[in-house]
């Protein structure tokens, strides 16, 4: 039986209005402040929430509870008003709104919007990626989005976590028709309840039809064009991207989608080398011609709390105002992210080259959990110690050269000698996928979805940032 606890909130900081942002008339428009929640246990001891592993970082919003205080005039008398339990993921956006001079009403409206979203049951752990089993419920008036090159729906998972409703997703790769159909089936299983229609045609074919049935002026349009010809692994021998006619026609189709659909916000994700391609230039030119403000950069998603080193080109463009990419946050090691899953994973044994990599590591380091790849690496296995993000997860990790399932693709070595095989669930967590996402049974299909996906935990931060700017710049 679960033991009850007595909950007592810490006091609101004194003179909070002195620290608030001042409007031109001298009236405070509010103060955002951190606090801790104290829970007195039945044994008399106190526990402080959110729970944090190690020291509490004063600069990490996920190490604190958050409140917002302001004053409102009632019958000519100023009275204090306090809003508590603000999601830490909203803190950066609230600060941005204050810096941009947003009104108190706009800030409070955004806070209420952020608080209306379902939060993770694990929000008491100092992480900034979602791992909730609770699937978000969206209001009827949620912003809508269209996704091109959707894959299994990584970007859509991030969208719904940010309160955005995907309504159309285009997904078909004629070079892998069976895999595309299997991925589209999984996409339908996960997002049909949001009213999302999956179109199993190429983006080029949809563009040729004039985007019939697509809503005009959607809130969001996202594209993750096929990146194989620009990836580091594919072009390592050539030393440069091998751009094909399919890449160019895909970019032309994206440009046409921008012109015809006129989204409020356009986003794009791809491998870093895509920024040097003619395809990317075609898309940039279309955005410029249509009057969009554009911001893009190569980011390492490990800097945004993803427990994986994953460098990607990310672009965000919009009309009427400038949206910045979200700020980084505290990195997370792979072990911290999946420690609760490891003992449930199947037992395994290290291959010879994995054992050699382990022995090499232990000659100069104290024993610590290691994530050791079974595939890739011509002479020795790649590995990562517990405190670091894992290496980039690729689709090829889950399939052999014939496209068949790999039963084992990476192993976890623990200091007590136990070896576990990294599960699909563990790999999905390292990719930032929420645990409500349902995978197919086939490892090759599930692994392809993981490897192809935009990490939803990063996507949520990207779209939450875009949402905050929309509040200060309404339609």
What does this structure look like?
Pfam families: DNA_methylase (PF00145). It is an enzyme of class 2 (transferase). By secondary structure, the chain is α+β, with helices and mostly antiparallel strands. The chain has three domains: 6-115, no CATH class; 144-331 and 453-472, Vaccinia Virus protein VP39 (Rossmann fold, 3-Layer(aba) Sandwich), CATH 3.40.50.150; 334-440, no CATH class. It contains 13 helices and 17 strands. It has helices spanning 91-99, 104-115, 154-161, 177-191, 203-208, 232-235, 245-261, 278-289, 334-342, 352-362, 424-430, 443-452, 456-472, and strands spanning 6-9, 31-35, 37-40, 46-49, 65-74, 77-83, 144-148, 165-170, 197-199, 220-223, 265-270, 293-300, 311-318, 370-373, 383-385, 410-413, 419-421. The strands form four sheets. A seven-stranded mixed sheet has the order 9-8-7-10-11-13-12, sandwiched between helices. β16 (410-413) and β17 form a beta hairpin. It is globular.
Stated plainly, the CATH topology of the largest domain is called Rossmann fold
Q: Could you give the distance between the termini?
A: 52 Å
Question: What is the count of structural domains?
Answer: 3
**What does the radius of gyration come to?**
24 Å
SS-based structural class? alpha+beta
Quaternary structure annotation: single chain
Could you list the spans in which at least 5 consecutive residues all have pLDDT below 50? 1-28, 118-131, 234-239
Short description:
The protein has helices at 91-99, 104-115, 154-161, 177-191, 203-208, 232-235, 245-261, 278-289, 334-342, 352-362, 424-430, 443-452, 456-472; strands at residues 6-9, 31-35, 37-40, 46-49, 65-74, 77-83, 144-148, 165-170, 197-199, 220-223, 265-270, 293-300, 311-318, 370-373, 383-385, 410-413, 419-421.
């Amino acid at each position: 039986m679960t033991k009850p606890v007595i909950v007592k909130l810490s006091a609101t900081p004194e003179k909070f209005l002195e620290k608030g942002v001042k409007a031109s008339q001298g009236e405070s428009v509010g103060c955002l402040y951190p606090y801790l929640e104290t829970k007195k246990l039945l044994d008399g001891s106190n526990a402080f929430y959110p729970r944090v592993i190690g020291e509490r970082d004063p600069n990490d919003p996920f190490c604190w509870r958050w409140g917002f205080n302001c004053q409102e005039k009632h019958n000519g008398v100023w009275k204090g008003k306090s809003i508590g339990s603000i999601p830490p993921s909203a803190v950066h956006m609230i600060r941005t709104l204050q810096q941009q001079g947003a009104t108190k009403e706009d800030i409070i409206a955004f806070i209420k919007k952020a608080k209306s979203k379902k939060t993770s049951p694990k929000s008491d752990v100092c992480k900034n990626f979602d791992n909730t089993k609770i699937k978000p419920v969206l209001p009827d008036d949620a912003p809508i989005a269209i996704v091109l090159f959707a894959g299994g729906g990584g970007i859509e998972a991030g969208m719904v976590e940010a309160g955005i409703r995907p309504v159309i997703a285009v997904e078909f790769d004629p070079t892998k028709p069976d895999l595309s159909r299997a991925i589209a089936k999984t996409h339908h299983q996960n997002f049909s309840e949001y009213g999302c229609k999956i179109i199993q045609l190429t983006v080029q074919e949809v563009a040729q039809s004039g985007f019939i049935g697509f809503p005009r002026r959607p809130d969001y349009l996202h594209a993750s064009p096929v990146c194989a010809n620009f990836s580091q692994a594919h072009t390592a021998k050539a030393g440069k991207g091998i751009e094909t006619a399919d890449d160019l026609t895909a970019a032309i189709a994206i440009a046409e989608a921008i012109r015809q659909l006129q989204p409020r916000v356009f986003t794009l994700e791809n491998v870093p080398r895509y920024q040097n391609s003619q395809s990317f230039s075609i898309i940039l030119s279309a955005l410029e011609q249509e009057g969009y403000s554009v911001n893009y950069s190569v980011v390492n998603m490990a800097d945004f709390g993803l427990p994986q080193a994953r460098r990607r080109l990310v672009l965000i463009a919009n009309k009427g105002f400038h949206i910045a990419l979200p700020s980084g946050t505290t990195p997370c090691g792979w072990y911290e992210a999946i420690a609760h899953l490891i003992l449930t994973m199947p037992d395994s044994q290290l291959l010879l080259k994995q054992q050699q990599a382990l022995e090499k590591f232990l000659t100069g380091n104290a024993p610590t959990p290691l994530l050791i790849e079974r595939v890739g690496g011509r002479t020795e296995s790649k590995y990562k110690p517990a405190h670091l993000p894992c290496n980039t997860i690729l689709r090829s990790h889950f399939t052999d050269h014939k496209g068949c399932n790999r039963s084992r693709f990476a192993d976890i070595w623990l200091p007590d000698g136990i070896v576990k095989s990294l599960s699909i669930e563990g790999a999905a967590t390292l990719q930032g996928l929420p645990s409500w996402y349902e995978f197919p049974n086939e490892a090759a299909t599930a692994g392809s979805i993981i490897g192809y996906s935009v990490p939803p935990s990063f996507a949520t931060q990207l779209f939450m940032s875009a949402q905050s700017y929309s509040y200060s710049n309404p339609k």
